[in-house]
């Protein structure tokens, strides 16, 4: 039991002292991606081999003098998920990628015993071929600034003392013993921490608003309902550093006057749920949750609420309705959540990444936070980098970094030597950015001016082969299905927009459809009740704005420039390449290809069903799509 600040500092010092006994520490990534790739088998095998040399996981491998204590431990996500399972060996920072259970013996014999690096397990840059031993020198990590992710991949998320030993809960101790609730709100306000869930609303104003509400009962709610396609930032934080989230909520509880908090996390995140539950249990057992925390008189507890996975529950009023046991639907505002949120009481609601920023701001001060990012968007932002890019994964970068730096310096560029075409930022709530935005600073205000938004931080990169009309159709299909249907503009508007987009990609669109699509998009954006409807039109509006020529090609020429839309595909035979072998006509199931042997064949496009059998059969590449 940690009874006061002195106990906390002694626990941290004891943990650090224990670490000094470890010559080596083997961290095996236990994030969802690496677990799916078999990392726990790697962990068990390495642990088994190390234990065979001695006892438990703290083992003396060299019994003849130069002692090496080795600790084998699971860790949170390193972010470079496509390279998993990942094994990191400290203090040298050796970073092994795509490790299999059968590699465990070599890791123990060659690296742990002899101190040598295994070349085949090192990361090699896919373009330059250069190999990297340490994580910090790899291009994927070099331009990152990891604050909220700094413990992910470095500590065991299921051990509260690893968090405490890395200054965990020290910010809580500081606010409880040195600061007033008003002072905490002031430092968050001065740091200009803006909500990382997408809206970018200043957290300090929200915190102070709840503090000023005259109510005996108040709540703190953490939004862990991450529904954007391609986004997994909050999941990684909850899995990799759950105590950081709890500490941020505890500080918010003290600042606002709340005694109870909820973490709303979707049930599709079982690993995050499990680690949060374990973290809450550990914090209670050690006196960091519950009554009279650190003997300061402050009491606060946290419950985990599993959501069913509805995108609309990312909206504050829908989320609180869901916690109350009702259907997750938004309501009209005012009153706002800060005045009447959960069970009608003042509620401080932020997302996972926002709370995860709080402990460092308290420890390092507002000026430290303001020293990163841009003046109106300070700090860092975690993005999930996916799509047509060499390096995919989770990154954390200073606000204001450009798209070019993310795509080429961190992401390694576009694979296959193809051209960058666009990036969908912020998922269904965001919009498409193009080549002309490559040097645009990524912050809340710049993106809003470009018609997009950071959203929760999904970054889907697309190359020259992407059809932007189909991209708009994909996201509209998602938001239409996720609309709760409460308000007419969203319920009917998204459905009508989807129908129009489906007509266009099927080759049946008209010029009137394009005009109506834009008109509907503006109506849904301005008339919808909540953030889902207000942002649902962003992918449509930005693709119309930046890729209008592709819409025209689909409608006027009945052609998909990227060759993606199946209904608009057509095949023809290049007479210069055709040798008249007749193989294509023999595989055509509808006899659409005719000709004479040793003369160029032709395709009847009226008969052609676009199965593509002729393309794969032709030995001379004479059949062309388009």
From TrEMBL:
Listed Pfam families: 2Fe-2S_thioredx, Complex1_51K, Fer4_10, NADH_4Fe-4S
Gene3D superfamilies the record matches: 3.10.20.600, 3.30.70.20, 6.10.250.1450, Glutaredoxin (3.40.30.10), NADH-ubiquinone oxidoreductase 51kDa subunit (3.40.50.11540), NADH-ubiquinone oxidoreductase 51kDa subunit, iron-sulphur binding domain (1.20.1440.230)
Stretches assigned to the 4Fe-4S ferredoxin-type domain: 569-598, 599-626
Keyword match Cell inner membrane: no
UniProt keyword terms in alphabetical order: 4Fe-4S, Iron, Iron-sulfur, Metal-binding, Oxidoreductase
PANTHER family: NADH-QUINONE OXIDOREDUCTASE SUBUNIT F
EC number(s) from the headed UniProt entry: 1.12.1.3
Keyword Transport part of the UniProt annotation: no
PROSITE patterns in the record: 4FE4S_FER_1 (PS00198), 4FE4S_FER_2 (PS51379), COMPLEX1_51K_2 (PS00645)
Homology family: Belongs to the complex I 51 kDa subunit family.
Gene Ontology MF terms: 4 iron, 4 sulfur cluster binding; FMN binding; hydrogen dehydrogenase (NADP+) activity; metal ion binding; NADH dehydrogenase (ubiquinone) activity
Protein name: NADP-reducing hydrogenase subunit HndC
């Amino acid at each position: 039991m940690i009874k006061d600040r002195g106990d906390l500092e002694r626990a941290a010092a004891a943990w650090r002292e224990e670490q000094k006994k470890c010559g080596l520490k083997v961290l095996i990534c236990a994030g969802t991606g690496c677990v799916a790739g078999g990392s726990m088998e790697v962990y068990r095998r390495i642990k088994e081999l190390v234990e065979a040399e001695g006892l438990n996981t703290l083992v003396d491998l060299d019994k003849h003098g130069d002692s090496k204590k080795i600790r084998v431990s699971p860790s949170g996500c390193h972010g470079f998920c496509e390279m998993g399972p990942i094994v990191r060996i400290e203090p040298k920072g050796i970073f092994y990628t795509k490790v299999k259970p059968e590699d465990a013996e070599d890791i123990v014999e060659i690296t742990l015993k002899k101190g040598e690096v295994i070349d085949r397990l090192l990361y090699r840059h896919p373009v330059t071929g250069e190999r990297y031993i340490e994580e910090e020198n790899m291009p994927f990590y070099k331009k990152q600034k990891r604050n909220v992710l700094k413990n992910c991949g470095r500590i065991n998320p299921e051990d509260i003392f690893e968090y405490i030993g890395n200054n965990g809960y020290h910010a809580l101790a500081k606010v409880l013993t040195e600061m007033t609730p008003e002072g905490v709100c002031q430092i968050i306000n001065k740091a200009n921490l803006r909500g990382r869930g997408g809206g970018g609303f200043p957290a300090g104003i929200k915190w102070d608003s709840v503090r000023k509400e005259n109510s005996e009962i108040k709540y703190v709610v953490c939004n862990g309902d991450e529904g954007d396609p391609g986004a997994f930032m909050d999941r990684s934080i909850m899995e990799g550093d759950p105590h950081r989230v709890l500490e941020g909520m505890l500080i918010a509880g003290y600042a606002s006057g709340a005694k109870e908090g909820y973490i709303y996390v979707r049930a599709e995140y079982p690993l995050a749920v499990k680690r949060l539950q374990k973290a809450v249990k550990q914090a209670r057992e050690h006196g960091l949750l519950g009554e009279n925390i650190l003997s300061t008189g402050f009491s606060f507890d946290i419950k985990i609420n599993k959501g069913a996975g509805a995108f609309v529950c990312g909206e504050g009023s829908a989320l609180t309705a869901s916690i109350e046991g009702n259907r997750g639907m938004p309501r009209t505002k005012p009153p706002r959540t800060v005045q009447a949120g959960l069970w009608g009481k003042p509620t401080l609601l932020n997302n996972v990444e926002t709370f995860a920023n709080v402990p460092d701001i308290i420890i390092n001060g507002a000026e430290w936070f303001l020293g990163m990012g841009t003046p109106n968007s300070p700090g860092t932002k975690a993005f999930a980098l996916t799509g047509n890019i060499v390096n995919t994964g989770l990154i954390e970068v200073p606000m204001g970094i450009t798209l070019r730096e993310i795509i080429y310096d961190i992401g390694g560029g576009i694979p296959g030597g193809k051209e960058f075409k666009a990036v969908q930022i912020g998922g269904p709530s965001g919009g498409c950015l193009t080549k002309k935005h490559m040097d645009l600073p990524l912050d809340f205000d710049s993106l809003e001016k470009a018609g997009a938004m950071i959203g929760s931080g999904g970054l889907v990169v697309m190359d020259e082969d992407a059809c932007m009309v189909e991209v708009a159709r994909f996201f509209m299909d998602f938001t239409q299905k996720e609309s709760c249907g409460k308000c007419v503009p969203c319920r009917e508007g998204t459905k009508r927009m989807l129908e129009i987009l489906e007509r266009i990609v099927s080759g049946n669109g008209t010029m009137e459809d394009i005009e109506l699509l834009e008109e509907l998009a503006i109506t849904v954006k301005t008339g919808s009740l909540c953030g889902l409807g207000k942002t649902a039109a962003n992918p449509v509006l930005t693709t119309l704005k930046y890729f209008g020529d592709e819409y025209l090609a689909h409608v006027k020429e009945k052609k998909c420039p990227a060759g993606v839309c199946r209904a608009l595909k057509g095949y023809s035979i290049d007479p210069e390449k055709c040798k008249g072998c007749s193989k294509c006509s023999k595989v055509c199931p509808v006899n659409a290809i005719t000709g004479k042997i040793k003369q160029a064949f032709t395709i009847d496009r009226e008969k052609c069903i676009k199965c593509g059998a002729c393309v794969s059969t032709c030995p001379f590449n004479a059949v062309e799509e388009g």
